Amino acid sequence: MNIQIFGKSKCFDTKKAERYFKERRISFQSVDLLKYGISPGELKSVKNAVGLDALIDARHPDAALLTYLAYEEDKLEKLLEVPRLLKTPIVRNGRQATVGYCPEIWKDWS
Protein backbone atom coordinates (compact mmCIF):
# COMPACT_ATOMS: atom_id res chain seq x y z
CA MET A 1 0.00 0.00 0.00
CA ASN A 2 1.20 3.46 -0.92
CA ILE A 3 -1.08 5.83 1.02
CA GLN A 4 -1.00 9.59 0.51
CA ILE A 5 -3.08 11.94 2.64
CA PHE A 6 -3.61 15.42 1.22
CA GLY A 7 -5.04 17.71 3.85
CA LYS A 8 -5.03 21.02 5.65
CA SER A 9 -3.11 21.33 8.90
CA LYS A 10 -6.15 22.63 10.83
CA CYS A 11 -8.65 20.16 9.34
CA PHE A 12 -10.19 17.86 11.96
CA ASP A 13 -11.02 15.11 9.43
CA THR A 14 -7.44 15.14 8.11
CA LYS A 15 -6.16 14.54 11.64
CA LYS A 16 -8.68 11.72 12.09
CA ALA A 17 -7.54 10.10 8.83
CA GLU A 18 -3.88 10.27 9.88
CA ARG A 19 -4.77 8.77 13.25
CA TYR A 20 -6.72 5.96 11.53
CA PHE A 21 -3.63 4.85 9.57
CA LYS A 22 -1.23 5.37 12.49
CA GLU A 23 -3.36 3.17 14.78
CA ARG A 24 -3.21 0.37 12.20
CA ARG A 25 0.54 0.84 11.67
CA ILE A 26 0.01 1.63 7.98
CA SER A 27 2.66 4.01 6.70
CA PHE A 28 1.48 7.03 4.75
CA GLN A 29 2.78 10.23 3.24
CA SER A 30 1.13 13.38 4.55
CA VAL A 31 0.96 16.40 2.23
CA ASP A 32 -0.15 19.86 3.40
CA LEU A 33 -2.35 21.11 0.55
CA LEU A 34 -2.04 24.75 1.53
CA LYS A 35 1.75 24.60 1.68
CA TYR A 36 2.60 22.22 -1.19
CA GLY A 37 -0.60 21.87 -3.20
CA ILE A 38 -1.39 18.88 -5.39
CA SER A 39 0.01 18.12 -8.83
CA PRO A 40 -2.29 18.26 -11.88
CA GLY A 41 -1.75 14.52 -12.46
CA GLU A 42 -2.64 13.61 -8.88
CA LEU A 43 -5.73 15.83 -8.95
CA LYS A 44 -6.88 14.26 -12.23
CA SER A 45 -6.33 10.77 -10.80
CA VAL A 46 -8.43 11.60 -7.73
CA LYS A 47 -11.13 13.19 -9.91
CA ASN A 48 -11.31 10.01 -12.00
CA ALA A 49 -11.78 7.95 -8.82
CA VAL A 50 -14.34 10.10 -6.97
CA GLY A 51 -15.77 12.61 -9.45
CA LEU A 52 -15.30 16.37 -9.65
CA ASP A 53 -18.21 17.34 -7.39
CA ALA A 54 -16.82 15.30 -4.47
CA LEU A 55 -13.59 17.33 -4.59
CA ILE A 56 -15.24 20.70 -3.98
CA ASP A 57 -15.65 21.91 -0.39
CA ALA A 58 -19.21 23.26 -0.49
CA ARG A 59 -18.66 25.07 2.84
CA HIS A 60 -15.98 27.32 1.34
CA PRO A 61 -17.35 30.82 0.56
CA ASP A 62 -15.95 30.77 -2.99
CA ALA A 63 -17.20 27.27 -3.88
CA ALA A 64 -20.27 28.70 -5.62
CA LEU A 65 -18.01 30.47 -8.11
CA LEU A 66 -16.95 27.10 -9.52
CA THR A 67 -20.50 26.45 -10.71
CA TYR A 68 -20.14 29.37 -13.12
CA LEU A 69 -17.13 27.82 -14.84
CA ALA A 70 -18.42 25.99 -17.90
CA TYR A 71 -15.69 23.42 -18.47
CA GLU A 72 -14.36 20.72 -16.19
CA GLU A 73 -10.77 21.66 -17.11
CA ASP A 74 -11.41 25.24 -15.92
CA LYS A 75 -12.75 23.93 -12.62
CA LEU A 76 -9.72 21.68 -12.14
CA GLU A 77 -7.41 24.60 -12.94
CA LYS A 78 -9.18 26.73 -10.31
CA LEU A 79 -8.85 23.93 -7.73
CA LEU A 80 -5.11 23.73 -8.45
CA GLU A 81 -4.84 27.51 -8.17
CA VAL A 82 -6.85 27.73 -4.91
CA PRO A 83 -6.36 24.48 -2.94
CA ARG A 84 -8.55 25.83 -0.11
CA LEU A 85 -11.52 24.94 -2.35
CA LEU A 86 -10.68 21.23 -2.08
CA LYS A 87 -12.55 19.11 0.43
CA THR A 88 -10.16 17.27 2.74
CA PRO A 89 -8.73 14.83 3.48
CA ILE A 90 -7.99 13.42 0.05
CA VAL A 91 -6.63 9.91 0.62
CA ARG A 92 -4.97 8.09 -2.30
CA ASN A 93 -3.92 4.48 -2.64
CA GLY A 94 -2.65 4.11 -6.21
CA ARG A 95 -5.64 4.64 -8.49
CA GLN A 96 -8.09 4.42 -5.60
CA ALA A 97 -9.04 7.57 -3.73
CA THR A 98 -11.50 8.96 -1.21
CA VAL A 99 -12.46 12.46 -0.16
CA GLY A 100 -13.41 13.02 3.46
CA TYR A 101 -13.15 10.62 6.39
CA CYS A 102 -13.99 7.16 4.94
CA PRO A 103 -12.69 4.34 7.20
CA GLU A 104 -15.29 1.92 5.80
CA ILE A 105 -13.56 2.15 2.40
CA TRP A 106 -9.97 2.25 3.75
CA LYS A 107 -10.38 -1.05 5.64
CA ASP A 108 -10.81 -2.84 2.28
CA TRP A 109 -7.55 -1.42 0.89
CA SER A 110 -5.22 -3.78 2.76
The major beta sheet can be summarized as: 4 strands, mixed
Count of discrete domains: 1
Task: Report the average pLDDT across residues.
Answer: 93
Count of distinct strands: 4
State the shape. Answer: globular
| CATH homologous group name | Glutaredoxin
What structural class is derived from the secondary structure elements?
A: alpha+beta
Low-confidence stretches: none
The CATH topology annotation reads as Glutaredoxin
The radius of gyration is: 13 Å
- SS field, number of helical segments: 6
Question: Could you tell me the strand content as a percent range?
Answer: 15-25%
Mind telling me the CATH class? Alpha Beta
User: Helix coverage percent of residues?
Assistant: 40-55%
**What is the helix/strand order?**
EHEHHHHEEH
Q: Strands across the major sheet, in which order?
A: 2-1-3-4
How would you summarize the topology of this molecule?
Elements: E1 3-7, H1 12-23, E2 28-32, H2 33-36, H3 40-50, H4 52-55, H5 72-81, E3 90-93, E4 96-99, H6 103-106
Parallel strand pairs: 1-2
Antiparallel strand pairs: 1-3, 3-4
EC number: 1.20.4.1
GO molecular function: arsenate reductase (glutaredoxin) activity
Keywords: Oxidoreductase
Structure characteristics:
110 residues; Glutaredoxin; four-stranded mixed beta sheet; 6 helices; 4 strands; alpha+beta; 16% strand; 41% helix
